[in-house]
UniProtKB/TrEMBL annotation:
Organism domain of life: Eukaryota
RlpA-like protein double-psi beta-barrel domain span: 42-97
Keywords: Signal
InterPro entries assigned to the protein according to its UniProt record, in alphabetical order: Expansin_CellWall, RlpA-like_DPBB, RlpA-like_sf
Organism: Macrolepiota fuliginosa MF-IS2
One Pfam family matching this protein: DPBB_1
UniProt cross-references to CDD domains, sorted A to Z: DPBB_RlpA_EXP_N-like
Stated name of the protein: RlpA-like protein double-psi beta-barrel domain-containing protein
Length: 101
């Protein structure tokens, strides 16, 4: 049972080619990782934190390892495999709800 409200955010999710992220870690397209918008990334305050991302009845767990300067405040970039766990890559971008785990 949760002891308090969990803040959820609505935004768009896209995917990107991974590599060296702003949290100083390398990732692969097959990792479940996420890049947060610059305001949410907050100079690395959320590095290594997990977020839950939900779309179309599916929910995934992704680890924050990067920032997304082109993302609006609550939009995120996922690794290709994480995105595919929610929708086909050819969807391009999807509306998601996400929260800090």
């Amino acid at each position: 049972m949760l002891s308090g409200a969990v803040s959820a955010f609505d935004g768009d999710a896209t995917y990107y080619s991974t590599g060296l992220g702003n949290c100083s870690a390398y990732s692969q397209d097959s990792d479940f990782i996420v890049a947060l918008s610059t305001p949410e990334y907050n100079n690395g305050a959320h590095c290594w934190q997990h977020i839950m991302v939900s779309y179309g009845g599916n929910t995934i767990d992704a680890t924050v390892i990067d920032s997304c300067p082109g993302c609006s405040q609550y939009s995120i970039d996922l690794s290709p495999l994480a995105f595919q766990a929610l929708a086909p890559l050819d969807a391009g971008h999807i509306p998601v709800t996400w929260w800090y785990a």
